[in-house]
From TrEMBL:
GO cellular component terms listed in the entry, alphabetical order: plasma membrane
Organism, scientific name: Streptomyces viridochromogenes (strain DSM 40736 / JCM 4977 / BCRC 1201 / Tue 494)
TM helices/strands, residue ranges: 12-35, 47-67, 131-149, 155-172, 193-212, 232-249
Presence of keyword Membrane: yes
Name the record gives this protein: Integral membrane protein
Alphabetized UniProt keyword annotations: Membrane, Transmembrane, Transmembrane helix
Length: 255
């Protein structure tokens, strides 16, 4: 047997880890399905605007590539030509690549015509301060998170995390001065958006409180093998996390 003896405890432990990974993928998929890329781009600070544009462009190009592949394969099948194998892959892949390059060139020309990438003149002292705050803040966030995850860092973890987060936000605020960006129609947050944010904060608070008060309930043991219990607070937090599925705005709605 590869890996040693197969036991019920080992299978249960693997099942728990698999469920954790599946939950993470479900959360990411739900957020991607409920989010509007254009609204997300409007909400980013000026320092992250260019990075956000690159991510949004990449996310919007992927569905176009899949649609092009399906369209070309259907066209080849209608003409009685093979759409599988090495030959079919070449005849489908080359037009898809050509179309992607054409869209990229057209998008680059449109972005250049709209002034994308142009930055304002910022003094050198402000640039150095921005870099120091951002880098120091990220290091503080990493150190604070590590402190919260270890038993020895329980006293300094939270203050270091909050200090690093404040420094990083200040750096992003200063970095936004380099972005020459105007808003024709500012994105307004309505009641539904606030409910989505409140549900996320409430879930994080409830699960953090449950992990602090009763960590064994969130990490059921496998040795000895016992049936896991359903704690009240984490279950309520998970149910509260389903609220965005009903109140989140439709991603296809115009902002």
């Amino acid at each position: 047997r590869l890996g040693g003896e197969v036991t019920a405890e080992a299978l249960t432990f693997a099942l728990y880890d698999g469920l954790k990974l599946a939950t993470l993928l479900i959360c990411v998929g739900a957020a991607n399905a409920l989010a509007n890329p254009s609204r997300l781009l409007k909400s980013l600070p000026g320092a992250l605007y260019e990075l956000g544009v690159a991510v949004v462009v990449a996310l919007t190009f992927a569905p176009n590539l899949i649609a092009d592949v399906q369209r070309l394969r259907a066209a080849r099948r209608l003409r009685g030509r093979p759409d599988k194998g090495v030959r079919g892959l070449l005849h489908v892949g080359l037009p898809v690549l050509e179309g992607a390059l054409e869209r990229s060139v057209a998008l680059a020309a449109a972005m250049d015509a709209r002034g994308y990438g142009r930055t304002a003149q910022v003094p050198a002292a402000v640039r150095r301060t921005t870099a120091a705050l951002t880098l120091g803040g990220l290091l503080g966030v990493c150190a604070g998170t590590y402190g919260l995850l270890t038993a020895e860092g329980g006293t300094y973890g939270l203050p270091v995390l909050l200090t690093g987060l404040s420094a990083a936000l200040a750096g992003l605020r200063l970095g936004g001065r380099r972005s020459l960006r105007t808003r024709y129609r500012p994105d307004r947050w309505d009641v539904r958006a606030w409910l989505v944010v409140a549900s996320g904060v409430a879930v994080a608070a409830l699960l953090t409180l449950a992990a602090t008060r009763d960590p064994a309930s969130l990490h059921p043991g496998v040795v000895p093998l016992v049936a896991p219990t359903l704690p009240l607070w984490p279950a309520a937090g998970v149910l509260l996390g389903l609220l965005p599925a009903f109140v989140a705005p439709d991603p296809k709605e115009p902002s």
